[in-house]
Amino acid sequence: MPVVTSRQDDVERRVADATLAITGQSLSSMSDILKGLGDELANTRPELPGANSPYAIVFHCVAVIEHWGGSVIAGLRIPRDRAAEFTAEGRVDDLITRVDDVSARLPEWVDVALREGIRDRTVMGSTRPELATATPEWVLTHLVRELAQHLGQLELTRDVLLRV
C-alpha cells in the first residue's frame, strides 16, 4: 500500500532536501578554497580591521552547524566556544576532516527536525534570541543563510590574501 503524505510533509521534505543540497555545496566550496590556499594562507588574517582568517571562517561554520543542527535540533549538547572560533588555527586537512564529518552528520539532524522538531531550546551559547520561538524550518533556513554569508566572506578573504 502506498504511503500517503500531506502537502505539508512534502513541503517540509523539500525544505530539508534544499537545505542539505545548499549546505553541501557551500561546505564543498569552502573545502576547495582551503585546499587552494594551503596551511599558511588559510591561517592568515587579511590586513583589514576585524578580518578573520579563512581557517577561522570555516571553523566557525562547522561550529554553527554543530550548534544549530547537533545541539538545538538533535539535542546533543555539542560544546561550543564561539569566541574561540574566530581565532582558531590549524592544518587545512584537519579542518576539512571536520567539514566532512559535520556534512555526514547533518542529514540525520535534518531528519530529526522533520520527525520531531527542535529537541533542545535551552542550549546556551547562541547569539540569536529567536531560539525560544524558532521552528525547525527557521533553523534550517538559518543554517543556509549563515553558510552562504560566510562562503561569500571566505571568497573575498581568499581574493584579498591572493591579491586577485
Q: What's the SSE blueprint?
A:
Layout: H1 7-42, H2 54-73, H3 82-85, H4 92-115, H5 136-162
Helix pairs in contact: 1-2, 1-4, 1-5, 2-4, 2-5
In short:
The chain is mostly helical. The chain has helices at 7-42, 54-73, 82-85, 92-115, 136-162.
The helix-and-strand class reads mainly alpha
Order of helices and strands: HHHHH
CATH topology: Four Helix Bundle (Hemerythrin (Met), subunit A)
Q: Please state the average pLDDT score.
A: 92
Radius of gyration over alpha carbons?
A: 17 Å
Contiguous uncertain segments of 5+ residues: none
Could you walk me through the main structural features you see in this protein, from its secondary elements to its overall organization?
With 164 residues, the protein is mostly helical. It has a single domain (7-162), classed as Four Helix Bundle (Hemerythrin (Met), subunit A) (Up-down Bundle). It has 5 helices and no strands. Helix 1 (7-42) runs parallel beside helix 5 and helix 2 runs antiparallel to helix 5 (136-162). It is elongated, with a radius of gyration of 17 Å. The protein starts with 6 loop residues before the first helix and ends with a helix. 28% of the residues are buried.
Q: What attributes does this structure have?
A:
single chain; 164 residues; mainly alpha; Four Helix Bundle (Hemerythrin (Met), subunit A)
